[in-house]
Automatic annotation (TrEMBL):
HAMAP family with a match to the protein in the record: Pterin_4_alpha (MF_00434)
Stored InterPro entries: PCD_sf (IPR036428), Pterin_deHydtase (IPR001533)
Origin superkingdom: Bacteria
Protein name (Swiss-Prot/TrEMBL): Putative pterin-4-alpha-carbinolamine dehydratase
Species annotation: Paraburkholderia phenazinium
Manganese as UniProt keyword: no
Example of a GO biological process term: tetrahydrobiopterin biosynthetic process
Family: Belongs to the pterin-4-alpha-carbinolamine dehydratase family.
The keyword Lyase belongs to this UniProt entry's keyword annotation: yes
GO terms of molecular function: 4-alpha-hydroxytetrahydrobiopterin dehydratase activity
EC number annotated for this UniProt entry: 4.2.1.96
Keywords on record: Lyase
EC class: lyase
């Protein structure tokens, strides 16, 4: 079983990410993205999907046109783990160029 982050590890790691917030009532983090249009949003989602498949670690996400909401948690651990942090770092990088606001 993968190690669930302690609250200390959690806050250290979260401080190094961009715009991720804790989800109320659940050990998970969430970030909202807004892109110029659907094409930019879906291009971003495609890059994240390829990484997720490689990592065998998948986001929970919701897309409407140019908006993407992403929630990360490790189902197997029922909480936040290093895998979520690793994927969040990739997502931050992938979203950096394309993001509008
Ligand atoms: N993604 C996430 N977010 N949490 C998991 O525990 C998880 C996953 N487990 N992707 C993987 C797939 C598992 O179901 C497969 C069988 O390896």
């Amino acid at each position: 079983m993968i190690h669930k982050l302690t609250s200390e590890e959690r806050s250290t790691q979260l401080a190094q990410l961009h715009g991720w917030v804790a989800v109320a009532g659940r050990d998970a983090i969430q970030r909202h993205f807004k892109f110029a249009d659907f094409n930019e949003a879906f291009g971003f989602m495609t890059r994240v999907a390829i990484k997720a498949q490689e990592m065998d670690h998948h986001p929970e996400w919701f897309n409407v046109y140019n908006k993407v909401e992403i929630t990360l948690s490790t189902h197997e651990a029922n909480g936040l783990t290093e895998r979520d942090i690793k994927l969040a770092r990739f997502i931050d990088q992938a979203g950096k160029d394309a993001q509008k606001g």
